[in-house]
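User: Please go through the entry that follows and flag anything odd:
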Amino acid sequence: MATLAFLFLLSAGKVVSETKIGTWTKENRKEWWSGHLDPSGWPAEQESIRTQLRSIHERLGTAKAFTNRHFVGWLRHLKWLSLFPDEPRDGSFFAKPDAARSFAAVAMEDDVFTLFHDHLSPHDDHSRAAEVLCRIYAAHPKDVREYPSLAVAMALVFDQPFPKGWPHAFVDPDNVPANNTPPEDRFAFIVKSAREEKLMLDPKRLTPAELKFVIDTPVPLDELAHLQKIKLRSPRALEDLFTLIPYAQSRLGNSDYLWPHGKYHVFTIQKKGGLCVDQAYYTAHTAKAKGIPSIVFLGQGVSGAHAWLGYVERYGDWAFDLAKFRQERYPVGRAYDPQTWRKLTDSECEFLDSHQVSSTARAKARNLMSWAELNPDAEFTGALYQLARREAPAYVWAWEAGAKHLADTGAPLEDRLEFWIDWIKAFERQKDLAFRGRKRHLALLEEAGKQSQFEQEIDKLIRENRAKRFDLVIEVAAEQILVKIDAGNWEAARESFLKSMVRLRSKAGGELFYRLVEPYVTLCLEAGRTDLAREAMVQAGKSFEARPGSILHRDLRELSALVNARKS
């Protein structure tokens, strides 16, 4: 097989560049960075390297190129080089005089660079994540070498601001004690805690995908230090801690669901007690302070909203049902993925935990995706995303990137239909992920005017999920009704609503009320269709048996009062 150096010579007359790509070794890498410490020349170098790699890719073909370590080495080098901005923001780390040296130094730290590149998601701010990583490295280079996964997790979480609704909807965001502690200081705090044996799990033995659920909080470090003093025999003792926080029953009686005690400090929760979301927040932060990955889920049961936890019981073993009340029949719990700030369900977490993509498969898929990201408009880009999915079939981010590419490029309808059929097959064992595919597929069937097939798929979806995952059935029913309302077809919307209520009355709880009844009634009132709103509330009154004093009971009464106050 022709070497990369030979292939470059074949096209040398077409490329004018200081960098002549050939073999890729640690020595070559060190030599390149030693001779290119001025970032002003990096944009030209990027374009030259990319042009040469495209020429080699064309000659070798995708299969041979991506099994050639020299091609892959230069590709990963180019990806990193592309993350340094041409014009750094004023006041940013990359605007500092020594930033280029830190940027080059991180590129030569094999473990750090590999973990960073291979754990990037399509939803990360890649350049900002690289900047955070370089900041941490510049402040603590030896510690980053010792705790590379921790540094990478910090970069992938703190590349974007926390959502305005963090941590949940039951506290005023202005009362959340978030501060601007630099990520390098948070990193140093955890390293110091590990060395002082204040953590129950060793960060060195956790992956970036696990550690992101340790460091995903903006609260002041003194709050975490306070929580580290709490005695726990093992991570399983978190369940006892949850119940030790007094439950504020009086707040339920007063319909006082928003945190009423000023700043949302853990000290105050410990003293005043709270609702389940406050208990979950306190318990999760205790876990994080002690180095235990934890995640708070919110779900709707028979009596309304409830919060519970997922956490790592021991290395490599998650539990997702701490304080989850089985009698409430929660179909699903939702939480933030702190790397992307998108919503995850508890069942998705369980699936992804049990179907982890191997580091080798992820690296291969990530290499293909990086080359696609560097060539967004190339003819071969779609094929790269397809190959990434083949290398790692359970790698959701490869599927999401492929879906976005098809949408961005205006791919033919049949290609998009085929893609979502493949998605559904790939994730048929995970209802939430499969449902995402089925929703998109249904939308395309409707767009294509395939009404008969559309109706068949809807009926099939309802039959398959009516028992346990009725939240998915509710979501489908709600979307159908909203589409009819948007089209001004109120009679059809009414018929669909009443049929759905009859079909789902045995599942009456928070999911049905907040996802179907409340939106439908609100739209009826906004459109002046008080008659339909009243009819809907009569049907709701026959369906719901909410526990007195619960959030659901209160919201049902308030919506009913609102409807009764409106004139016909």
Q: What stands out?
A: The CA atoms of residues 76 and 367 lie 7 Å apart.
